[in-house]
Amino acid sequence: MYNDNQRVVVTGLGAVTPIGVDVPSTWESLLAGRSGIGPVTSFDASRVKSQIAAEVKDFDPSLYLGRKEVRRTDRFAQFAIASTMQAVSDAGLDMASEDPRRVGVHIGSGIGGITTLLHAAEVLREKGPRRVSALMIPSILLDTAAGQIAAMLGARGPNVAVSLACATGNGAIGEASEIIRRGAADVMIAGGSESAINELVLAGFANMGALSTRNDEPERASRPFDIQRDGFVIGEGSATLILESLSHARDRGANIYGELLGYGITADAYHATAPREDGIGACEAMTMAMRQAGVPSESVGYINAHGTSTPLNDSTETLAVKKFFGDHAYRLALSSIKSMTGHLLGAGGAVEAVATVLALTESVISPTINYEFPDPACDLDYVPNTARQLRIDVAMSNSFGFGGHNTCLVFGKV
């Protein structure tokens, strides 16, 4: 059993999503089953097969950054800074009262500053190399958000930026918890951020057959576990969790949302994009997380599923859940918020972790919307279309990524 210095708790939440620019508005939209998916507005998508996305709306970076910093900061980093400042405020974390060497940052991204990169490529082509900004390189790097956040807060502890494709958000949170468990920090600011809605990325995903082409019904396009699903819908946003050792949180009188009981990470070692169809890698990630959590599998009441709305992912995840939980799989509630937020790539797992923690604390599960036509290969309880009141003591959040990355977080009440 962990002592209080090794137990990791969640004390703050922040989010910028296609359905809300903070946690309260995002959570309200999730419970209402409100979709954030629509036609792409940030560029002319008429040449791309998939012309829909879950874009962040009404986001004002000047609430978090000065005018000059806004111009110099890629949108993915702007999102990360915003969700982090929200989480720090929510946690009541006062850096003036903290040892800065004991506060770290672990913010990941799947793609990083690709908006800045594409703009720089246009400048190079049209105006030549002398006109490429000297700030281009630090703006595109995956560690940009983590570095900027550390500088803004004066957090001098471990500073990391992980990339695990679509499992990045979960992986960043899990790895941050391990930093606390091994005694290298008291507080870790952890999450994921992504802003990659552009013609190049949509063309790449669309041409590999990963995206939904339900362009005439964007709000109904993301339909995890439904037999008519035809691909995921790309989204953007960020989420941040404040993690602390239990002893540190109690010493400063912090509000505690819940405990991060366990973390699992495995590899399929199988294919560049496709998951193993037997689900064994995902099952092993759940096994690892539950072993660290030290609670019986029957105590899990809810799984926030990866649930991308792609044919293979949803059936494979269902199989993996049944492999691990056995008969208990049919007594579990599962749901996928990607039905509303779209797939936020490297930020997806972090936003879903926020939703999982709130499900624990609020005793209500956000639904899987657009679930209309059952798939015989997906035969579990996916909380279709309407939020459900349910007391939960232990909840799980799954994220899987291209390259065969499998991650699992287990949260519980303190």
SSE topology sketch:
Layout: E1 8-16, H1 23-32, E2 38-39, E3 52-53, H2 67-72, H3 75-91, E4 103-108, H4 114-127, H5 136-140, H6 144-153, E5 159-160, H7 168-181, E6 187-194, H8 199-207, E7 237-245, H9 246-251, E8 258-267, H10 280-293, E9 300-304, H11 311-325, E10 333-335, H12 338-341, H13 348-362, E11 364-365, E12 388-389, E13 394-401, E14 405-412
Parallel strand pairs: 4-5, 4-6, 9-10, 9-13
Antiparallel strand pairs: 1-7, 1-8, 2-3, 6-7, 8-14, 11-12, 13-14
Helix pairs in contact: 3-6, 7-13, 10-11
Question: What would your notes on this structure say?
Answer:
This protein is an alpha/beta fold. The chain contains 13 helices and 14 strands. The chain has helices at residues 23-32, 67-72, 75-91, 114-127, 136-140, 144-153, 168-181, 199-207, 246-251, 280-293, 311-325, 338-341, 348-362, and strands spanning 8-16, 38-39, 52-53, 103-108, 159-160, 187-194, 237-245, 258-267, 300-304, 333-335, 364-365, 388-389, 394-401, 405-412. Strand 13 and strand 14 form a beta hairpin. The radius of gyration is 20 Å and the shape is globular. The mean pLDDT is 97.
